[in-house]
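dude i think i finally got it to work??
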Amino acid sequence: MSSTALPPDRRRQILKVIFISLLLDLISFTFILPLFPKLLEFYRGLDSSSSSPNSLLNRILTGLNTYKQSFSRPISDRYDIVLLGGALGSLFSFLQAIASPFIGTLSDRYGRRTALLWSMIGNIASVALWVAATDFRTFLASRVVGGLSEGNVQLATAMAADISDDKQRGATMALVGVCFSIAFTFGPALGAALANVSTVAANPFATAAGFSLFLILVETLYLYLYLPETLPSSRSNGSPNGSAERKEPTKPAAHLRTNSHFILNLTHFSFILFFSGMEFSFPFLTYDLFAYSSSQTGKLLGFIGLVASILQGSVTRRLHPLSVVKLGVVACAASFFLLGRLTTERGLYAAASLLAVATATVVTGLNSLSSFEAAEDERGGKLGNHRSWGMFPNMFRSDILHIPIRCISGEGLV
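look at this
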């Protein structure tokens, strides 16, 4: 708990700012998820028409073809898009795993507000590059910049922990989880709808990218105007923008740990390794098995987000974080069992419902448990490390692995 408890009205005000800003950020982030297959097809088509064998995309596709040829069973070229999407997702996750501990540590040293505003500058640059991405090289640059600068989620988690005591922590973390759920309810569907609006001939996805940029700019201005500093050792004396003179830091009391950070991080790593970034992989799964369009995929992701948001508001916030984690792990295992036997769209939505339970519980519960074990002056860094452990498994994405697994199992992909 923070060294100085916040008045309830002040706490609610800060929570409101955290919630609105994170919601804007995640809606913007989820715009691109259902667009990836068609977006990558667009860039591959551009490269094919340019007839340049030495282009960056052609070199990447050549490497993917070498990967495909390492398996005894043939793999059709139509899976190049699935593999390319998996590779891009792995790159983004790798960059997040590298950047997260640094962003968290900087927030411990210079303040959450300062770190978050610098992160927003990187987010603006990333989305601006997507708006201007008339070729694959520029689009790749946007993903690299975004992977290195995205710090909103971990900093929102740290700020929520800063202003909550142990009894409030689970419900507060659930509020952060609700942002994810709402964003996945509306973001993908909105992104898919905007992709149907063509405003720039050279980049048919410019409308979705432009609206995403608009949301990020609004979020940045909102944070600058209304977010105070939440770091307990450096809170301002009431200024709404945190610009007032900071108090001298006080030595934090000794922090009693009940769980090992290593065990919590390893649990996070193990769960995500099997969960394998399903929010990213689902568009490629539906594209592969059911030939889903962007709007159909957006509808499915929206369904997952709706179920998860209901659970976050009604179940997750009321249970102890450890119970929340156990519930989510069981639901995740059941969903994978169904996905392994998937033949119909009804089965797809049943598995999606169980994935929604996992989405609403496991990471939220682990974040709460991790925040309990961090002292005030190390909370940003510890939560950054915790997020990093969850990002590294995403390098081994199911989009890359499910194709060779199907080949090994004897199905083949021709």
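The radius of gyration is 21 Å.
im so relieved honestly
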